[in-house]
Design goal:
Shape: globular
Helix content: under 10%
Distance between the termini: 43 Å
Strand content: over 45%
Number of helices: 0
Structural class: mainly beta
Largest sheet: 5 strands, antiparallel
Low-confidence stretches: none
Order of helices and strands: EEEEEEEEEEEEEEEEEEEEEEEE
Radius of gyration: 22 Å
Length: 330
């Protein structure tokens, strides 16, 4: 286990490696170490199982440029080795920076960050090496040319697309934008139009995650119209402008604080398709954990003898066959 943070004295990015003791149900962590003696802030980090490396993005403090580190575990020293801080763009950013998987190519990741001068969302498509702590950068692309604050991102593996939810401080509402890779993986671009997730003012607490069981993304938010409870919607299509299912809420609906981080970062328990998320509980300001179970998509077959039929003959080039299902079911 790896924990990364920025200390309050020097603002240097630091890390510690932890191990879990199943006998005592506790973690123990190594002595903290400095990744690089350069002041930084706004850290986000992911582990890439394909390359076995960690992608750490942040904002450099002296020029506010978005940066990236690549780390790998050293079994000989039981710690992580890190690359030097590498600039993603010579453009000043502000609060928000996020990284997520960007495609099926090994080591392919998307970094999204908020430009300081106008709060527009910019992006970098990077590919992490499998053999060294390095990456290639496809360059800078604009994604959302609006005030996009507090955004969260999720890669939809079924659709091979990325979804971004964000808060627009011009109207205090929540929106979603789908993103795809450009032709030849030369960068990133918007896929379809921006969609308003909910008509009510949402505040800053928004979240999104992909369920590998349901094969879709779910987004949720703190809704002041429901007493500070959370409301949910599923993304119901795979390409172009996002379509959303009806609003709903879990049977046990937590009342969430209106603080800047009232919703904690979610995680997914893959075998059961269970979303695990934490909240800053309103009234007590205590952390609480909740789970929501997603379900797999099912067929609309109504009887057991529906089948897909294939003609029992060969076809030469240029000839086609029409294949129908019994009852036009899927």
């Amino acid at each position: 286990h790896l924990v990364v943070w920025v200390d309050t004295s020097s603002s240097y990015p630091r890390f510690s490696v932890g191990s879990y003791n199943s006998g005592t149900s506790t973690y123990s962590f190594s002595t903290q170490s400095i990744i690089q003696s350069t002041a930084a802030t706004k850290v986000d980090v992911v582990f890439d199982s394909g390359t076995g490396r960690v992608i750490l993005v942040c904002r450099r403090s002296d020029n506010w440029y978005p940066q990236c580190f690549i780390g790998s575990y050293n079994s000989g020293t039981s710690t992580y080795d890190w690359s030097s801080m590498t600039e993603l763009s010579a453009t000043a950013m502000t609060e928000d920076i996020r990284v997520c998987k960007a495609g099926t190519t090994t080591g392919q990741y998307a970094v999204f960050w908020r430009k300081n001068s106008n709060n527009y969302t910019k992006s970098n498509l990077i590919t992490v090496s499998s053999s060294s702590n390095t990456f290639t950068n496809a360059g800078l692309d604009g994604i959302i040319d609006l005030n996009a604050y507090y955004f969260e991102v999720a890669y939809d593996a079924n659709a091979d697309r990325i979804n971004i939810v964000y808060f627009n401080n011009s109207d205090n509402k929540m929106y979603i934008q789908r993103v795809k890779r450009k032709s030849g993986d030369s960068g990133l671009e918007a896929d379809g139009n921006i969609v308003n997730v909910v008509v009510q003012n949402t505040g800053k607490n928004i979240a999104i995650i992909y369920s590998p069981l349901a094969l879709r993304c779910y987004t949720w938010w703190r809704d002041p119209s429901y007493g500070g409870g959370c409301r949910w919607r599923a993304i119901t299509n795979t390409t172009g402008t996002v379509t959303l299912g009806s609003e709903t809420n879990p049977p046990t609906n937590p009342t969430i604080s209106s603080s800047a981080r009232g919703l904690g970062f979610p995680d997914m328990f893959n075998p059961q398709g269970t979303i695990i998320f934490t909240v800053d509980a309103s009234g007590t300001n205590r952390g609480q954990m909740y789970s929501v179970k997603t379900t797999a998509e099912v067929s609309n077959r109504s009887v057991a003898n529906h089948y897909l039929g294939f003609a029992d003959q060969a076809y030469t080039d240029g000839q086609t066959a029409t294949i129908k299902t019994y009852g036009n079911n899927t």
